[in-house]
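check this one:
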Amino acid sequence: MKFFELAFRLGIMIAIFGFIWGIIRLLLSLLRGGGVQSVVEEYLLKTAKYILLVNVVVLNGFERGTHELMMRELLLTGLILFMYFISNLQKDQQKHQFMKTIQTDMPLFQSKFSLTGEIVAVTLSAAAFVFFISFPQYASYGLSQWFYDGILSIENTFIIGFVFKVIGFFFLLNIVQKIINSIFSLLTGAPLFTVRREFREKKEDKDKDDDFDDFEEIK
């Protein structure tokens, strides 16, 4: 039960953090004239985003009214967070493979995916997580506290906060699906939902083959 509570809470935080980060990205883009970012710039920003998100998650792991970390809950939250990072890596990799099939020179449809950049971003964020839980006195500073306070303020807003709670619920469902898929991958060699989808597709193909074609010549 604690796992679901932490996953739901983390989903809300990630959604609101992404909202604030998106506004900052938009402002930075406007300041630089809206030019296309290089792969290096893209992954520098992604690494900074991941590290700051880790920092905010650690701040949320402090016992209310004290400077003590709730280590058990924080480690479990960290595990869920890095499942989210790995999921993002896989999603961006699939998007990159799809974009490679589109032959176009339009920057909008050109992927900036870099496996090395993704690995560096996740690795540095993992290192930051270990650092902040080892030296929690360095977790709270101007920028991280501003993000954390902003997340709490938005979450406590009636309408907007409710929207992000809905997003947090779907984040929880996504995490549960990934766990179920992982268990089935270990037991059967294939994820549950993929197996079900393939079974449904095969059944549909079989049904199509069995359908009688009105225009088929009967011999």
